[in-house]
Design goal:
Number of helices: 24
Strand order of the largest sheet: 1-5-2-3-4
Number of domains: 4
Structural class: alpha+beta
Distance between the termini: 46 Å
Radius of gyration: 26 Å
Shape: globular
Length: 522
């Protein structure tokens, strides 16, 4: 259950497989450890998801679930109204401009806030993968051009995903595979510990592992119940932060230290770019007088520079002369010189400026070479003549019909299914409502409301016992702590058991949470 490095290498080499045999966590870890650039395609009828990895890190994810699109995600957070959504969406289709760029143009969000929202949206789509207990996968190395400005740390994704969505059975089986072995802190884990945000409880575990201990001894050290301990320990084992004592190296090793970022122009060594690189490096006095480009200006360019060609990056016409190109590059280089952002580390702006700066150097080298510039102009002409399809990320979601009639490529809409399920439940048609609730929950496993509806509907139909329903609702509360409906339904179940005090406590808390949630959406 805890894959070895050899096993991870074998997983990364797979082309197809079954998620029940190779879980999502192992797929992510295998691609990350081996540094693969690939597309991981996952299917579980009618759901589809494609995750793009660049050098082992997830950078993009597209699915056929409507609520995972950026617009619908922002609506759920109260960051976008339905009216604004349709206005921007229609403009995006009419102008053939990415949806997110128009959000900034319409001043609905700032570039900095948009970047944060894109990160949150990507994380949410990726975390859904940990809820997949079945389905098929395919790994393709026929990679599309990576235009995403995002990059998710795979180790952090695994720690978070396992904590929230890994099934307790898988967690328990994985930890129990250690048997009575004593575990210790690995001096050379798969990823540097400073790159991972562990919980306070996991930090306590790492401190306890400074001396070798069995799983039982660890539980006593951190005063944790078995199920909770296993969920904390499993990602540490998977990332080889904790390893069996007999696998420790003979001599203690110092953890690898990541090299500091150098501001040398190693990737911009084109002959024609080098002279300007020398010109734009300011002296110490000049550096003190540099006024940093605003955070939003930097983020505006960072969000789109990967999908812009050299002409677009410098905002130049195709007939621009060499002198105009030279001036554009010099202005660009001064504006996004990484050292300008050296004092701002809160959002790693210096690293982002460095990426933009190097992209500008490569763009200048291409434009300054007459032959390469002519080839680029011809490429742009051919692209203009080729019709561009609308992607699922920006397409208008088509409301899904009954679960049996929904099929890709129509975007699946769990919200529509939940609304229909509620109408049927209120009409007393609980069996029909259950099918719609189940479909919504299949599409969005992170939504506690959908899961709670399924559990309570099954309880009303006597498909589960009160004990089973309460246990399942408790798990929903763990995954989605803000789900007031789970607390409310737990109160309803306690009512049927005659547990008056428990029922009142759960019902009151559920009602309060739902009231607060409703106010927050206004």
């Amino acid at each position: 259950m805890i894959p070895t490095l050899e096993k991870l290498k074998a997983i990364a080499a797979l082309r197809t497989g079954d998620i029940a045999e190779v879980p999502f966590a192992h797929l992510v870890l295998a691609l990350a450890v081996n540094g693969h650039s690939a597309v991981l395609e996952m299917k579980r009828t009618p759901l589809e998801k494609q995750i793009v990895f660049d050098d082992g890190a997830p950078v993009d994810c597209v699915s056929n679930v409507a609520t995972e699109t950026l617009g619908r995600f922002m609506i759920s957070l109260g960051k976008l109204t339905e009216s604004e959504y349709h206005t921007v969406l229609n403009a995006s289709i009419a102008k053939d401009v990415p949806f997110e760029e128009l959000l900034v143009e319409h001043e609905i969000v700032s570039p900095t806030d948009l970047y944060k929202l894109l990160q949150q949206n990507l994380a949410r789509k990726l975390l859904d993968g940990f809820s997949w207990a079945s389905g098929t996968f395919r790994i393709s190395h026929d990679l599309p051009q990576v235009g995403s400005p995002l990059r998710v740390r795979p180790a952090q994704l695994l720690v978070t995903g396992i904590a929230r969505f890994a099934s307790q059975r898988d967690v328990d089986e994985s930890v129990s595979s250690m048997g009575e072995k004593k575990l210790a802190l690995n001096p050379a884990p798969l990823f540097p510990l400073e790159e991972i945000r562990l919980t306070e409880e996991q930090h306590a575990l790492t401190r306890a592992l400074s001396t070798a201990k069995s799983v039982a001894e660890l539980g006593a050290s951190v005063a944790s119940e078995a199920e909770e301990l296993n969920r904390l320990l499993y990602p540490l084992l998977l990332l080889r932060i904790a390893i069996p004592e007999d696998e420790l190296p003979a001599a203690a090793q110092e953890p690898a230290v990541l090299p500091k970022m150098e501001l040398e122009a190693s990737v911009a060594t084109e002959e024609l770019a080098v002279p300007f690189l020398k010109q734009v490096v300011p002296s110490k006095v000049e550096l003190e007088e540099v006024v940093a480009t605003s955070r939003d200006d930097l983020m505006r360019v960072y969000l789109s520079f990967r999908r812009r060609d050299p002409f677009d990056l410098f905002d130049l016409q195709e007939n621009a002369t060499l002198s105009v190109i030279n001036a554009a590059w010099e202005s660009f280089a001064r504006k996004f010189a990484p050292w300008t952002f050296a004092s701002d580390t809160t959002e790693a702006l210096q690293e982002k400026a460095q990426e933009i700066f190097y992209a500008g150097a490569r763009a200048y080298a291409e434009l300054a070479d007459a032959e390469r510039r002519a080839m680029l102009i011809e490429k742009r002409r051919a692209a203009r003549e080729k019709p561009k399809p609308i992607t699922s990320a920006s397409a208008t979601p088509v409301p899904a019909a009954a679960p049996s009639s929904v099929s890709a490529p129509v975007l699946l809409d769990p919200e529509a299914q939940h609304r229909l399920g509620r109408q049927l439940a209120e009409a007393g048609r609980h069996r029909e409502a259950l099918s719609h609730f189940q479909f919504a929950a299949e599409c969005d496993a992170q939504n506690g409301v959908y899961q709670a509806e399924v559990i309570y509907s099954r309880f009303q139909l006597m498909a589960t016992t009160a004990t089973q329903a309460l246990g399942a609702l408790k798990e929903v509360m763990r995954i989605d702590p803000k789900c007031g409906l789970a607390w409310f339904y737990a109160g309803k179940v306690h009512q049927t058991l005659g547990n008056t005090m428990e029922a009142e406590a759960y019902l009151d808390r559920g009602k309060n949470m739902m009231t607060l949630a409703k106010r927050g959406r206004r």
